[in-house]
């Protein structure tokens, strides 16, 4: 059974940094493509960042240069380091693991950026 548990969300001010974590169980994070999605109030869920099993990364244009996705294989944990946070980064952030045509989701962690 795959379980993804996000943590690290919270209330921060614009310009601050925050690191999200996603603890995985049931699968190893370095064997699958993994990613972070977010969903802001009233908006569709969007892909923020992804990392392949080979270690290649990709980012949404809106977060390039500010967010970094990484993983710690020893802890079996995926991370999203966010810096220079903006009001528009406010959203629920979800961790995902892609296995073939199946995408597993965590329950999400809320990030609120205030002015």
Layout: helices, strands, pairs:
Layout: E1 3-7, E2 10-13, E3 18-25, E4 33-39, E5 46-51, E6 57-59, E7 67-72, E8 77-82, E9 91-99, E10 102-105, E11 109-114
Parallel strand pairs: 2-11
Antiparallel strand pairs: 1-3, 3-8, 4-5, 4-9, 5-6, 7-8, 9-10, 9-11
Please tag this protein with its features.
56% strand; four-stranded antiparallel beta sheet; mainly beta; 11 strands; 115 residues
Protein model, in words:
There is one protein chain. This protein has 115 residues and is mostly beta strands. It has no helices and 11 strands. The strands form 2 sheets. Strands 2, 4, 5, 6, 9, 10 and 11 form a 7-stranded mixed sheet that branches.
Summarize the structure.
This protein is mainly beta.
Low-confidence parts: none
What about the largest sheet?
Answer: 7 strands, mixed
| Average pLDDT taken over every residue | 97
Given helix and strand content, the structural type is mainly beta
Q: Element order, helices and strands? A: EEEEEEEEEEE
Percent range for β-strand residues:
over 45%
The beta-strand count equals 11
What percent of residues adopt helix (DSSP H or I)?
Answer: under 10%
**Which term fits the overall shape?**
globular
Spatial separation of the terminal alpha carbons: 40 Å
**Cα-atom Rg, whole angstroms?**
13 Å
The DSSP helix count reads: 0
């Amino acid at each position: 059974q795959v379980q993804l548990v996000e943590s690290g969300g919270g209330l921060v001010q614009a310009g601050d940094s925050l690191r999200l974590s996603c603890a995985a169980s049931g699968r190893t994070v370095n064997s699958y493509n993994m990613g972070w999605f977010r969903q802001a109030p009233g908006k569709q869920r969007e892909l923020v960042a992804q990392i392949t099993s080979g270690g290649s990364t990709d980012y949404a244009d809106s977060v390039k240069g500010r967010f970094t996705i990484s993983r710690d294989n020893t802890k079996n944990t995926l991370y999203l380091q966010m810096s220079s946070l903006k009001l528009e980064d406010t959203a629920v952030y979800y961790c995902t693991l892609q296995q073939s045509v199946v995408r597993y989701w965590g329950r999400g962690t809320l990030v609120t950026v205030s002015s």
